[in-house]
């Protein structure tokens, strides 16, 4: 992630759409990027700007689907990333997409790989499979699937195992490209989603919500860690098994 | 060697029609006879398979054909013990469907009968004879991704209960009527009982055994069946590998009495996928493909059309080889017991909302 590129892109969007900018602002390019707005540092929720995640949510609540039963997510990314951050990402996504908070969590972790079962207050059961095991530069493997009584919603095609790319270049060099945002053309996925997340934060004044959410995700992932150490499910209301 | 004289019992298992083809096509076999559990499956068999007599009971068939050397017990799980006893008493070798029994006392008696009779009992876990599985095993054995950190697998299908009603009957599928948990209207005997493959595969790939299991059952997609159809399982092996297994009936189906074209509502009716994370890399695999696709008849719905399932070639080759050479099959009763134990631990975990240590 390039902080300068993100800053320039955000500035362009703020100018274009007439959104007031803080006096000073910028990006901190950690695994989960943060946004610096004057003296505040706010952890972003960039995955919520992934248009596939937005569409899954829209399909689920927009009349396409029946009552949901199971949510499954697989996220495999580079081995330079922090598995804790990836766990927080997927915990946030399952609650946000399914519009229900977690009621219990059970995790088993083995170094850079973790599997979680999260039961939501709505009764939907979520399985999150996370690993930071790919080599640098390899494309992430993301699979999200929601099983409902009417059918399956997912972000990957039937009979495939990894995400398709938009452009495949064969020749002296083999290259693959997936460009997802015309206005922010030239930025990569992580830069785009970070910029869009910061834009939404400023446009809709979500600082307070994002700060609260970051603290909540810290607590939720800590509970998952406790579950793994104690080898038991954690009821999030009581903290007990 | 002369072909093995083999019979097909009951004709009520989901793989029965596969065996119509296998027992006729494989040159190592001579398809001698069949027994039918009811008139409906008897007619289906007679209409489909010519030249092979079909009887109204296992005993009638075995008495009419003392030359039978082996059987495929293509029956409901609850019938396996009785059929096993019948065959063991006659020294007849058995190719058992994937769940011999969920009753561990019965299971141990089957092992004793097998030992006493000196027969071969092989369990039908055909994924071992799948060429993609073979490739994955070689990759892992070669250390290409280093020490395994996690094993993820799906064994997900549509539900067969409309065509094979015993699979939606707790007594016939699980062996007894037992509630999933207090306050739940459902019983043990659904999707979990139909999908043992991945519980077995992880043992082969890791070379390790189960340490702990946590399972959670989800709301049914099919609200009108008395057994579970959606569940998820995570846990840890003794070597530290963590796992995530999905044995659900998560792909919806048309409620056909006889499986055939148009069965699928979700395009792909069956899926066994593996996702293995290691210290040095990742393997993702789909056991069934490459496939073809259409959105033509009968429902003009986009459908994955599988090309061929050749797992039964290797499976039968091993079965015949073990009989001819007095060997024990790779997937034998003793080996398979720990897989059954793990599946029972899933039900225990669901019932108690707790992690089960094995």
Q: How would you describe this structure to a colleague?
A:
- The complex is a heterodimer of chains A (241) and B (358).
- Chain A is of the alpha+beta class.
- Helices cover 34% and strands 29% of the residues of chain A.
- Chain A contains five helices and twelve strands.
- Chain A has helices at residues 3-17, 51-61, 83-98, 189-203, 207-230; strands at 25-28, 34-37, 40-43, 68-78, 102-110, 113-120, 125-134, 141-148, 152-154, 167-169, 175-177, 234-235.
- A seven-stranded mixed sheet of chain A has the order 9-8-4-7-6-5-12.
- The radius of gyration of chain A is 18 Å and the shape is globular.
- In chain A, 41% of the residues are buried.
- The model of chain A has no long low-confidence stretch (mean pLDDT 96).
- Chain B is of the alpha/beta class and 358 residues long.
- Chain B contains eleven helices and 15 strands.
- In chain B, strands 12-11-7-10-9-8-15 form a seven-stranded mixed sheet, with helices on one face. Chain B has a six-stranded parallel sheet with strand order 3-2-1-4-5-6, with helices on both faces. In chain B, strands 13-14 form a two-stranded antiparallel sheet.
- In chain B, β9 and β10 form a beta hairpin.
- Chain B is globular, with a radius of gyration of 20 Å.
- Chain B starts with a strand and ends with a strand.
- The mean pLDDT of chain B is 96.
- At the A-B interface, β4, β5, β6, β7 and β8 of A face β7, β8, β9, β10 and β11 of B.
């Amino acid at each position: 992630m390039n902080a300068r590129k993100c800053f320039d892109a955000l500035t362009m969007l703020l100018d274009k759409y007439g959104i007031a900018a803080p006096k000073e602002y910028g990006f901190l390019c950690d695994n989960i990027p943060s946004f610096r707005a004057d003296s505040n540092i706010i952890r972003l929720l960039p995955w919520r700007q992934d248009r596939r995640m937005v569409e899954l949510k829209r399909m689920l609540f927009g009349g396409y689907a029946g009552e949901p039963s199971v949510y499954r997510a697989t996220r495999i990314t580079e081995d330079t990333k922090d598995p804790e951050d990836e766990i927080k990402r997927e915990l946030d996504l399952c609650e946000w997409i399914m519009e229900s908070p977690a009621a219990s969590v059970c995790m088993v972790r083995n170094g850079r790989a973790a599997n979680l079962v999260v039961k939501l207050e709505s009764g939907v059961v979520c399985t999150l499979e996370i690993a930071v095991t790919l080599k640098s530069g390899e494309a992430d493997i993301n699979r999200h699937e929601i099983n409902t009584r009417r059918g399956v919603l997912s972000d990957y095609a039937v009979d495939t195992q990894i995400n398709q790319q938009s452009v495949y270049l064969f020749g002296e060099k083999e290259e693959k490209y997936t460009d997802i945002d015309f206005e922010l053309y030239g930025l990569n996925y992580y830069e785009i989603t970070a910029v869009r997340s910061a834009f939404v934060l400023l446009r809709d004044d979500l600082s307070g919500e994002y700060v609260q959410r970051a603290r909540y995700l810290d607590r939720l992932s800590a509970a998952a860690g406790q579950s793994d150490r104690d080898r038991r499910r954690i009821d999030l209301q009581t903290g007990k098994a | 060697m002369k072909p093995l004289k083999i019979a097909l019992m009951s004709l009520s298992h989901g793989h029965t029609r596969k065996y119509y083809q296998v027992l006729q096509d494989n040159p190592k076999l001579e398809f001698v006879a069949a027994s039918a559990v009811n008139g409906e499956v008897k007619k289906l068999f007679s209409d489909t398979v010519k030249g092979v007599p079909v009887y109204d009971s296992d005993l009638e068939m075995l008495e009419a054909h003392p030359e039978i050397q082996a059987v495929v017990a293509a029956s409901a799980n609850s019938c396996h013990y009785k059929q096993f006893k019948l065959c063991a008493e006659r020294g007849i070798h058995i190719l058992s469907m994937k769940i011999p029994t969920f009753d561990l006392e019965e299971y141990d008696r089957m092992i004793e009968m097998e030992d006493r009779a000196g027969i071969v009992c092989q369990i039908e876990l055909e994924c071992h004879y799948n060429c993609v599985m073979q490739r994955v095993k070689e990759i892992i054995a070669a250390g290409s991704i280093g020490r395994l950190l996690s094993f993820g697998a799906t064994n997900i299908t549509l539900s067969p209960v409309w065509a094979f009603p015993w699979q939606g009957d707790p007594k016939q599928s699980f062996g007894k009527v037992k509630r999933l948990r207090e306050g739940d209207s459902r019983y043990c005997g659904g999707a979990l009982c139909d999908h043992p493959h991945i519980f077995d595969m992880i043992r082969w790939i890791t070379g390790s055994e189960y340490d702990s299991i946590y399972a959670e059952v989800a709301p049914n997609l099919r609200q009108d069946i008395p057994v579970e159809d959606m569940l998820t399982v995570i846990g840890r092996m003794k070597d530290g590998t963590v796992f995530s297994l999905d044995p659900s009936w998560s792909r919806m189906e048309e409620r056909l009495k006889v499986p055939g074209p148009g069965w699928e509502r979700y395009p792909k009716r069956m899926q066994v996928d593996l996702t293995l994370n290691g210290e040095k890399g990742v393997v993702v695999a789909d056991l069934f493909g490459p496939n073809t696709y259409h959105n033509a008849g009968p429902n003009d719905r986009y459908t994955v059309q599988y090309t061929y399932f050749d797992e039964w070639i290797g499976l039968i080759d091993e079965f015949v080889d073990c009989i001819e050479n007095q060997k024990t099959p790779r997937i034998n009763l003793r080996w398979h017991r720990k897989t059954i134990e793990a599946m029972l631990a899933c039900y225990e975990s669901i019932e108690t909302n707790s992690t089960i240590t094995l």
